[in-house]
Amino acid sequence: MSVESNSGISEAVIRRLPKYHRYLTDLELMGEKKVSSAKMSEDLCLNASQIRRDLNCFGGFGQQGYGYNVSKLKDAISKILHIDRQYNVIIIGAGNMGRALMRYPYYKGMGFKVLAAFDSNPALIGTTTSGCEILDISKIEKFCAEHEVDIGIIATPKEAVLDVADLLTKLGIHAIWNFAPVDVYERDGVAVENVHLNDGLYVLCYKMNNL
Amino acid sequence: MSVESNSGISEAVIRRLPKYHRYLTDLELMGEKKVSSAKMSEDLCLNASQIRRDLNCFGGFGQQGYGYNVSKLKDAISKILHIDRQYNVIIIGAGNMGRALMRYPYYKGMGFKVLAAFDSNPALIGTTTSGCEILDISKIEKFCAEHEVDIGIIATPKEAVLDVADLLTKLGIHAIWNFAPVDVYERDGVAVENVHLNDGLYVLCYKMNNL
DNA sequence: TAGATTGTTAATCGATTAACAATC
DNA sequence: TAGATTGTTAATCGATTAACAATC
Lengths: 211, 211
Prior knowledge:
The structure is a homodimer of 211-residue chains. Chain A has helices at 11-29, 37-44, 48-56, 70-81, 96-103, 140-146, 161-170, 197-208; strands at residues 34-35, 62-63, 67-69, 87-92, 112-119, 128-129, 132-136, 151-154, 175-178, 191-194. Chain A is α/β, with parallel strands linked by helices and 211 residues long. In chain A, the strands form two sheets. Chain A has a seven-stranded mixed beta sheet with strand order 6-7-5-4-8-9-10. Chain A has a three-stranded antiparallel beta sheet with strand order 1-3-2. In chain A, helix 7 links the parallel strand 8 and strand 9 (175-178). In chain A, helix 1 crosses helix 4 (70-81) and helix 2 (37-44) packs across helix 3 (48-56). Chain A is elongated and about 65 Å long. Chain A starts with 10 loop residues before the first helix and ends with a helix. At the A-B interface, helix 1, helix 5, strand 10 and helix 8 of A face helix 1, helix 5, strand 10 and helix 8 of B. Chain A binds a DNA duplex (24 and 24 nucleotides) through helix 3 and strand 2.
């Protein structure tokens, strides 16, 4: 519940939407036309009441006695998540992680387009990965003035993260997807998602020793 | 709250521990000897009561009137998470994601050792990334018999995920870190962490449009 | 001792689940 | 109409926060 959040929807609900979306995409691909909350509950290991309640946060997508229309529900969730349009992305930091994200295939088909990556390492500048060039970080300001960049992915060493986040904010980017192992907190009008892969790995270690 | 979980600690608490650990590691590096829950609260944007309560789930690490000893608390959390020992890791699927995970630098210094990767693509088999060989998937059974493998990372296309998870379970691996966009559910004595990068990206899209 | 800060109980808040009336 | 399944309210459960006594 960020300070600026204007919707009354809890983050827990929002974080389940992509899972519904993934599931409905699969169902659609398998040719299924309808689905009930009971079936979703079974397949997704979630309580059926919770699913109906989640969906009803955004309106009545179902039909009593029938269930939900797979395609319509999927499209509705796409709209709620705002993944029904294209986003322009840049990547800051073109080390292992940054270059992996340049190649990341899950963007494909969805509306995420990596325009360029930026780094300060002369050995990387000018090279191309997955058809996308690595530019000198000093060019970022001009680049952002000339392109409508929506999302900045941070994949720098952690020492640089705060400066990069400030820079992206200044350049008017709307969202930060941060892969460095430091938390970036929400600022001004910039949305932030922190991905801490190591944290998940540590939780896995805990789990495997506490089954 | 998995069925088999024998500790009474909630998952919400466990998921905050890596954050504490990261923070304490930084403090230690900066030469700080002690820290109070009030300072942690400010730096981590968490409620101080919550922090004290979290830590007290595992014993009294603090001292009234003083606070917490940084190094001792960090070591205690390492023990709780069981990240105070080495884990042997294999990666199944050596595509973009798999190879990126072979190079992933955050293992370094921590006790995670990638022994090998496995794939079925002849073009990849026999090649080496970051000093680690990509082997034919048919060799995995023999490999696991000869090595004590703790963690299996799944980075295959989603069609293969269920079979791979079953295989890893059969081979006696203790934990699965799944990067494919399908959920693997906890099974037998195998701990599972699903990483769905795209889900986070979708949530980011939601957030940036609902600030 | 006085001040600081933990450990822990009690109060609050929010999220999940159950139940059922509405309705297709 | 009867059966099915949603939408929604009420009940439960768990997590967070506040408060303060314990104690270093």
